[in-house]
Design a protein that fits this description.
GO terms for molecular function: mRNA binding; structural constituent of ribosome. By secondary structure, the chain is an alpha/beta fold. It has one domain (3-164): Ribosomal Protein L13p, Chain: A (Alpha-Beta Complex). The chain has helices at 3-13, 27-39, 70-73, 91-97, 101-110, 117-121, 134-137, 159-164, and strands at residues 17-21, 55-59, 75-79, 86-90, 124-126, 140-144. The relative contact order is 0.19.
Length: 178
């Protein structure tokens, strides 16, 4: 086997570490993308019964964005198996308790409902901010592209760029803005 072919063979079977920035991203749409990397669906050797998936590190899960008024209307169900043990938690309450749970539940829901789902979830590492342990960070070799671009806040745009932006109309000198 040639050296190039051997490297290609190793790259196919190796577990790669990917990083995904969840800032201002919809967790349910992001879960579909993360699922492909967790299960190894992009690899040529993928098979549903084959454990060839990679590790995915999700950062900034504290700054996710749900659509519309889902923060107030989306409900998460839990039952502790006792009579009357059903609880329904709103999305904003769950996010306040643990900022990583919504992303974790979204990815868990996106994975196929089989016995490998729990083992696949062990390769998902979620952090509420950008602080990642060094031993994990040194393994990361790929970045997953965000689904939507993160908008820039107006107070973070330099004043020089604001002044150079073309204006549609000029206010008179004595005009008072309210």
């Amino acid at each position: 086997m040639s050296l190039a072919r051997r490297g290609q063979h190793w790259g196919t079977f190796a577990r790669i570490w990917h990083i995904y920035d969840a800032k201002w991203q919809d967790p349910y749409k992001s879960a579909e993308v993360i699922k492909h990397y967790l299960m190894g669906m992009y690899k040529p050797i993928y098979h549903p019964l084959n454990s060839c998936g990679d590790h995915v590190v999700v950062i900034n899960s504290k700054e996710i964005a749900l659509r519309g008024d889902e923060w107030r209307k989306r409900v998460y169900f839990h039952h502790n198996t006792y009579h009357g043990g059903a609880t329904w938690t709103l999305a904003w309450e769950l996010h306040y308790k643990d900022p990583t749970l919504i992303v974790e539940k979204a990815v868990y829901r996106a994975l196929p409902k089989n016995l490998q789902r729990r083992y696949t979830m062990q390769r998902l590492h979620i952090f509420p901010d950008e602080k990642i342990p060094e031993d994990m960070l040194k393994n990361v070799s790929n970045q997953i592209k965000q689904l939507t671009a993160v908008p820039v806040r107006l107070d973070h745009i330099p004043q020089k760029e604001v002044d150079n932006f073309p204006q549609l109309l000029k206010y008179p000198e004595n005009y008072i803005l309210k």
